[in-house]
Amino acid sequence: MYLNLRYTVFAAVALLTFLLLIAGVFHSYWWWIGLPVFGGLTLVGIYDVIQIKHAVLRNYPILGHMRYILESIRPEIRQYMIESDKDEVPFSRQDRGLVYQRSKGEEDKRPFGTIENVYSSGYAWLTHSTAPVKNVDTDFRVHIGGSQCTQPYDASLYNISAMSFGALSANAISALNIGARKGKFAHDTGEGGISRYHRQGGGDLIYQIASGYFGCRNDDGSFSPEKFAKTAADPQIKMIELKLSQGAKPGHGGMLPGPKVTEEIAEARGIPIGIDCISPPAHSTFSTPLGLMEFIGQLRQLSNGKPVGFKLCIGHRREFMSIVKAMLKTGIIPDFIVVDGKEGGTGAAPVEFANRVGMPMLEGLTFVHNTLRGAGIRDQVKIGAAGKIITAFDIARAFALGADWCNSARGFMFAIGCIQAQACHTNKCPVGIATQDPLRQRAIDVGDKSDRVARFHRNTMHALGEIAGAAGLTDPRDFMPYHFMFRQNDNKFLDGNEVYPYLPDGFLLLEDEIEELSDWYSRWERASAESFAPPTIPHGPFAKRVAVTK
Q1: Is the peptide bond before 90 cis (omega within 30 degrees of 0)?
Q2: Quick one: CA torsion of 355, 357, 360, 366, rounded to 10 degrees?
Q3: Low-confidence winner among 92-96, 99-103, 252-256, 329-333 (lowest mean pLDDT)
Q4: pLDDT tens digit string along 494-519?
Q5: Cα angle at 290 between 289 and 294, to 5 degrees?
Q6: Cross-strand partners of 180
Q7: Radius of gyration in angstroms for the set of CA atoms belonging to the chain, rounded to a whole number
Q8: Where are the alpha helices (DSSP H) in 73-169?
Q9: Distance between CA atoms of residues 19 and 37, nearest Å
Q10: Degrees, nearest 5: CA angle 364-391-498
Q11: pTM beyond cutoff 0.85
């Protein structure tokens, strides 16, 4: 009986096909109208029974295909029918809706109060002032460029984070860059080089260089000073960003298969058409902290003094301290550091990397900020923050923890129509953003979407001005940890200064060490400007260090 039920649909379709065939022969040819449909299903059923790759289809011919159909639309079913407003997969419906409303210029207010559980662990809130201020001018800017920089840049406090042409379509890049020009903020090129669509848009660019050295490489994949100098001379390029790692897949390289290397991608990256394009996990130009600083100095000289910095997701904290020691030893101080959280996005990443590798943004940002303070050079380096930053609250919290500006990739993708289909790696993006299919990307109207990009930025900055004003501040960069409270459990919360404190300026260089910071001194001692490698391999927990008084 059970066996018969498994094959009922197949048997019924086959029988109906046979009856239609007989009826058409002996009664009327009109019966054959349905023959292609049911005949085709019968052939599918026969194939299902004899194929050996899918056990479900062998046991449930024809009917088993429903399982694969439902599986293919599972993200859409969840997103539109099951997901609550607060489910983060990876962005909540509430956050996505906020971006859509602000980019379209629609009402972005909420009635009836918060839907957040304000008494749950992890909830954070901003402390407001009894004497709020009204910030009329919300075009907030940060001056990027230290004493070694001769072409500083006044950047918006909110910019488009790194997304390469190739990962994004031509129309998506055009919409983002034209929107950046309209809104007077910056657009990070991503590691895929500067495409014709970046240049046509005319928006300010942050030229990102990664291990593939796209746009400034020799034929063997090594760095080309001559090509870099020529590219960096473009006045549209305002800053140079050296990518050491990114949040979604730190320490992971990549390969773009040859068939996907089109003429336009090859032009942007400076690689042959149709040949596999390799992005190594590590840079070939340097292998030590001192080498990294020397390379940054070289990039600054070749770019005629434009701001040069690097982007990374924090991994081994000792290694970042090694980089800071190299800054002190060489005297070469980067103009900026972008801290990417492991919650950052990407077109495609191994699940293990996306879920379990790298430090989240809040902890990474705090560590970088305090390490630079400890080394006495925090005032010489601006810090950018990236990693799921799309609301004014996200930006304000990052400023409180040490950021000078913020970047967002997926926030601006939502602004041009991303629906979080999570099909970025399939070349079948339903809205034409993460695809190279010319028919799919036609869905993006560049003029309309660029207006949305500029409008989202403008409305977010306005919201940032309002939230700063509520705290009694005239500049969002004045946010400090004590402006925020963090709930630890149902009946306990801590001041931001307790959770994310600012450590004393220059404490890593003091002769009389601070006992409470012994772990910092221990890690600082193990760091070396000459090498990223650890001085010793621990086979257990590090021994607790007692602060030294000299």
Answers
A1: yes
A2: 170
A3: 252-256
A4: 999 999 999 999 999 998 899 999 99
A5: 120
A6: none
A7: 28
A8: 74-77, 93-104
A9: 13
A10: 45
A11: yes
